[in-house]
Design a protein that fits this description.
Elements: H1 2-30, E1 35-36, E2 43-46, E3 51-58, E4 65-69, E5 74-78, E6 81-82, E7 89-92, E8 99-104, E9 113-119, E10 125-139, E11 147-151, E12 156-165, E13 169-174, E14 206-211, E15 220-227, E16 234-250, E17 254-258, E18 263-273, E19 279-283, E20 286-288, E21 294-300, E22 305-313, E23 321-327, E24 330-339, E25 354-359, H2 371-378, E26 388-395, E27 400-403, E28 411-416, H3 430-461
Parallel strand pairs: 2-10, 11-16, 17-24, 26-28
Antiparallel strand pairs: 1-3, 3-8, 4-5, 4-9, 5-6, 7-8, 9-10, 10-12, 12-14, 13-15, 15-16, 16-18, 18-22, 19-20, 19-23, 21-22, 23-24, 25-28, 26-27
Signal peptide: 1-27
Biased composition (Polar residues): 424-433
Protein name: Lachesin
Length: 462
């Protein structure tokens, strides 16, 4: 009986021990270790925007997810509790959600770098992701001079240095929109040697504009423009000043006008760098200042050219003479002369004639027995000379009258009008018309008399 009781007690003890260990075994097999699902993605944001790093963890249970900034080894957060003193950092996790987020509000360039997500297992499990903060370009004012001065025909280099993420690209542009003529940069002074590499190239973020021989057309305002795809792009004005001595010239060295004209202007062009502020006008050796009859104006044409004008009102004969415009030590002269008002010449109706005799070679004569000669002799009215040809040219604005007497000329007598500028015909009286045609009638009478005389001589010779 006692043996049976002992056997039952021993079996009950074994059963109790098995039941106590069964939940532990079942729990150990059901609880898997936490692990990351997928890889954490790198994040790129523009400066000022919120950056979110996200990881997904499975079977976390009672384990914890932490965030660490790798370069500084600063713990950002543990679980849902923020550790860092940066008020812009926060953690987000929805209960029973496997997604854990590290949020950095208004990201700045200092926030860029690698971040690590950790699970406090043994050994620890972790993943890393890189946060890139895109920074808009910024031009360094201390390394980029605003004004550069150089003498004419000397080389000059303009520098521009900018920072940003990604590294900015430097471009050059002129304020007036004209094309920029630049040359390869071959030389570097002591200041430039600090940033120029051994092969003459510049590191990223530096721009250089080289002009081998600066002239007056190179003078002006240049823009250094830095851009990297992050708005806004920035620019800086750089003023290039080319120094050269003063030069002055008169716009019109000789000026004429009639007396009594209300006003006349004398102009001089001044080119100088820097521009001269000592501008004067002289009449002879007397300085001219603003008064009731003289006004002086200055008009700026470009960065190195101005026009100075002296206006003389109510012009008089005593104003004629030599004027001098002076800029610094340079001067130019303008001579002003006074002339009488132009009068309109009266129209003349007199026609002048001149005699031009051209001799025809003897071999061109035809024999007296030719048909033409017989026709002339047998003609009842003789109007031309047998061996002379008279050509009358009368020049008018509308027509040219040519009168030819014979086809067998020995000498050609041409009456020409030498007048070049003749006014167009106007309405005139009958007496004026008769006066103009009078030379023609006299010529025809003389020609008839010569023809009759020739006929008589021919008849006698026969």
């Amino acid at each position: 009986m006692s043996r049976l009781f002992r056997l039952c007690c021993w079996c009950w003890a074994l059963s109790a021990m098995s039941l106590d260990r069964l939940p532990l075994a079942l729990t150990a097999t059901d609880e898997a270790e936490p692990d990351f699902i997928g890889q954490i993605d790198n994040v790129t944001v523009a400066q000022g925007r919120d950056a979110i790093l996200s990881c997904t963890v499975s079977h976390l249970n009672d384990y914890t997810v932490g965030w660490v900034k790798v370069d500084t080894k600063a713990i950002q957060a543990t679980g849902r509790r923020v550790v860092t003193l940066n008020s812009r950092v926060s953690v987000e996790n929805i209960p029973d959600s496997p997604i854990w987020k590290l949020i950095i509000k208004s990201a700045q360039p200092d926030d860029a770098g690698y971040y690590m997500a950790q699970i406090n297992t043994d050994p620890m499990k972790s993943q890393m992701a890189y946060l890139s903060v895109m920074e808009p370009p910024n031009i360094d004012d201390e390394a980029t001079p605003s004004v550069r001065q150089v003498r004419e025909n000397e080389p000059v280099e303009l520098y521009c240095q900018a920072t940003g993420q990604p590294v900015p690209i430097i471009a050059w542009k002129r304020e007036d929109g004209t094309n920029i003529s630049h040359d390869p940069c071959r030389h570097a002074n002591d200041t430039q040697q600090k940033i120029v590499s051994s092969d003459g190239s510049l590191p990223k973020g530096h721009g250089r504009l080289c002009i081998a021989s600066a002239d007056r057309s190179s003078m002006g305002t240049y823009f250094c423009i830095a851009s990297n795809g992050v708005l806004p792009s920035v620019s800086k004005r750089i003023q290039l000043v080319v120094l050269f001595p003063t030069a002055i010239r008169a716009e019109k060295p000789l000026v004429g006008a009639p007396a009594g004209v209300n006003g006349i202007g004398l102009e001089c062009i001044v080119e100088a760098s820097p521009l001269s502020h000592h501008l004067f006008w002289y009449f002879g050796n007397t300085s001219i200042g603003p008064n009731e009859r003289h006004t002086m104006t200055i008009h700026k044409i470009n960065a190195y050219t101005i026009k100075m004008t002296l206006a003389i009102l109510n012009l008089r004969e005593t104003d004629a003479g030599l004027y001098r415009c002076q800029a610094g030590r340079s001067e130019a002269t303008i001579r002003l002369y006074i002339h009488n008002p132009m009068t309109t010449p009266s129209r003349s109706t007199t026609t002048k004639w001149m005699l031009d005799i051209r001799t025809t070679p003897w071999k061109e004569r035809q024999p007296r027995t030719s048909a033409a000669h017989l026709a002339i002799i047998q003609s009842p009215v003789i109007t031309t000379e047998t061996y002379r040809s008279v050509t009358l040219n009368r020049h008018t604005s509308s027509q040219v009258e040519v009168l030819t007497s014979s086809n067998r000329p020995v000498q050609e007598v041409v009456y020409k009008n030498p007048s070049v500028h003749r006014s167009p015909p106007s309405s005139s009286t009958a007496s004026d018309l008769n006066h103009q045609h009078r030379p023609t009638g006299q010529l025809m009478l003389m020609t008839s008399m010569i023809a009759i005389l020739t006929q008589v001589i021919s008849f006698v010779s026969c």
